[in-house]
Amino acid sequence: MSESSPVWLITGASNGLGLEMCLRALRAGHRVIGSVRSKTKAATTVEQIEQAGGSVIELDMTESQSSIASKVQAIGRIDYLINVAGYSILAPCEDITENEATLQMTTNFFGPLFTLQAALPAMRAQRSGTIVNVSSVAAQDPLPACSLYSASKAALEAASESLAKEVAPHNIRVLIVEPGNFRTNFVSALADASPDPAKVAPHYDDPVGMVMRKFLTIHGKQPGDPQKGVDRIFEIVTGTGMAGPLSGKISRLVLGNDAHARIQKSCERLESDLGLQEHVSTSTNYA
Bigger pLDDT: 213 or 163? Predict the structure, then answer.
């Protein structure tokens, strides 16, 4: 790769879609900086990325705004910022503690927000750049037991849509990615972050308990192929391959049969709600 090669900053690079995204961009000959919370804990991943020609920095989404800014701005030029880092807890909304709620929103919303804020000055100065915020089908179709995770991703999506309008005059693009269930360690990590379904209050056995048990037993059976997922992301942001023709034409990239079906049903429900209430909605203006 040369000094003129595009530069990628990819958060959440220790595993899953983040790691696959790093390796995909490196195979294309681009310059890649992946971020992990701890190089020591992610030593195998760090070695894998570095052997492929990339570099790794330590960056935790729960760090302060100033700390994130200093680390991101030290990179200099960034052509593609891919905000992948995130996690989820599964729990009834009623039972979520203040600490759990704060950590969920900080990791999935404030961390990515501070990261993109830090990258924007350089992108604006070079009058080019792409920001990809990896959200989830859960932002559009929240399931029981996923209230705070869905809220964190919905917040990221709303901010992304507003940001896209703000930075368009500077030739900066913003893309929301909404994956379904991909075969990464995301689901297995839920077991560490979530309470034992057997300890959930009995009145939440259905539907919260059903969703929790389902999520905690599908690891290794998810339908999504992570490599194909990152291929589509790479293609749409670079304007190449299967997804290339969509570049600049869509604000959301939905990945997975399951995600596509769920979001389609969600849109149909919204359309139905709007149709049923049109006369009520329009009755509130001054005569």
Answer: 163
Residue 178 CB coordination number (10 Å): 24
For residues 217 and 48, the answer to whether their CB atoms sit within 8 Å is: no
Q: 169: buried, middle or exposed (CB in 10 Å: 19+, 13-18, 0-12)?
A: exposed
At a CB cut-off of 8 Å and minimum separation 6, what does 115 contact? 9, 11, 59, 61, 68, 72, 81, 83
Placement of tokens 């961390």 in the chain? 111
Position 199 pLDDT exceeds 60: no
Q: What is the mean pLDDT of residues 154-176?
A: 98
Task: Locate the domains of the chain by residue range.
Answer: 7-276
Q: Cβ atoms within 10 A of the Cβ of 174, count? A: 22
**Cβ pair 64, 110 in contact under 8 A:** no
Looking at per-residue pLDDT, the higher value among 117 and 221 belongs to 117
Which class is 7-276 in CATH? alpha beta
* 193-212 residues labelled b (16+ CB within 10 A) or e (exposed): ebeebeebeeebeeebbebb
State how far the Cα of 4 lies from the Cα of 118, in Å rounded to an integer: 22
Q: What integer pLDDT is reported at residue 256 of this predicted model?
A: 94
Supply the pLDDT for residue 219: 72
pTM of this structure: 0.91
Q: Which residues are catalytic?
A: 135, 149, 153
